[in-house]
Amino acid sequence: MERLQKVIAHAGVASRRAAEKLILAGRVTVNEQVVTELGTKVKNSDQVKVDGVPLRKEAPVYFMLNKPRGVISSVHDEKGRRTVVDLFTEEGVTERIYPIGRLDYDTTGLLLLTNDGELTNQLMHPKFEVDKVYIAKVKGLVTNDALRQLRTGVKIDGRMTAQAKAKVVEVAADKKHSLVKLTIHEGHNHQVKKMLQAVGHPVVKLHREEYAGLTLAGLPSAGQWRELKPVEVKYLRQLSGEN
């Protein structure tokens, strides 16, 4: 027997954390009975439904996307805007995939998508400290003092960020903008933008070039995507503590 939220996650409906929310909201039934208890365990013979739709087991799939601007990092958008999942369904991908984490509407770069809820949950767990590398175009000339603050931690939303790696990679010819490479392992809402704002350098453009050691090599254009290689999936599982 397995916990209900784990079964839902493995079916590709949502991450385990999101599955817990579905259960608490009364959207899950087991053998036609609504279940809202997170500790519930189910057997293979039990019929589990989410929003009245029976679970169907999908083979796990894993994708890397070079996310373009103007696309939402979500499965659905209430405002009808294009989502990252739309980029795949338009190309014939039928599995119920969802992004691992998020990139802002106007942020570009590397985003992973999958229907493997367990791996998603592991990679997003803070204890694994998965590195995310960003290139930010910011206003002004970034000083050594600003870099020191970014490296040691800055206060945003009433808390201090963890230590980060930060360096200036380029200064614009007009001396009014800088390119900063920032590596963090946290994933709080708008974190990179808020960190740079906190040291006096608002972000003009933001691009994620690396996630968990994976890069966009081979995906030079925004909107391009590919399946992860088996060795990459194995690496992510090892990184996230999965056997």
TrEMBL record:
<dbReference type="GO" id="GO:0005829">
    <property type="term" value="C:cytosol"/>
</dbReference>
<dbReference type="InterPro" id="IPR020094">
    <property type="entry name" value="TruA/RsuA/RluB/E/F_N"/>
</dbReference>
<dbReference type="Pfam" id="PF00849">
    <property type="entry name" value="PseudoU_synth_2"/>
</dbReference>
<comment type="similarity">
    <text>Belongs to the pseudouridine synthase RsuA family.</text>
</comment>
<dbReference type="InterPro" id="IPR050343">
    <property type="entry name" value="RsuA_PseudoU_synthase"/>
</dbReference>
<dbReference type="InterPro" id="IPR000748">
    <property type="entry name" value="PsdUridine_synth_RsuA/RluB/E/F"/>
</dbReference>
<protein>
    <recommendedName>
        <fullName>Pseudouridine synthase</fullName>
        <ecNumber>5.4.99.-</ecNumber>
    </recommendedName>
</protein>
<dbReference type="GO" id="GO:0000455">
    <property type="term" value="P:enzyme-directed rRNA pseudouridine synthesis"/>
</dbReference>
<feature type="domain" description="RNA-binding S4">
    <location>
        <begin position="2"/>
        <end position="59"/>
    </location>
</feature>
<keyword id="KW-0413">Isomerase</keyword>
<dbReference type="InterPro" id="IPR036986">
    <property type="entry name" value="S4_RNA-bd_sf"/>
</dbReference>
<keyword id="KW-0694">RNA-binding</keyword>
<dbReference type="Pfam" id="PF01479">
    <property type="entry name" value="S4"/>
</dbReference>
<dbReference type="InterPro" id="IPR020103">
    <property type="entry name" value="PsdUridine_synth_cat_dom_sf"/>
</dbReference>
<dbReference type="InterPro" id="IPR006145">
    <property type="entry name" value="PsdUridine_synth_RsuA/RluA"/>
</dbReference>
<dbReference type="GO" id="GO:0003723">
    <property type="term" value="F:RNA binding"/>
</dbReference>
<dbReference type="InterPro" id="IPR018496">
    <property type="entry name" value="PsdUridine_synth_RsuA/RluB_CS"/>
</dbReference>
<dbReference type="InterPro" id="IPR042092">
    <property type="entry name" value="PsdUridine_s_RsuA/RluB/E/F_cat"/>
</dbReference>
<dbReference type="InterPro" id="IPR002942">
    <property type="entry name" value="S4_RNA-bd"/>
</dbReference>
<dbReference type="GO" id="GO:0120159">
    <property type="term" value="F:rRNA pseudouridine synthase activity"/>
</dbReference>
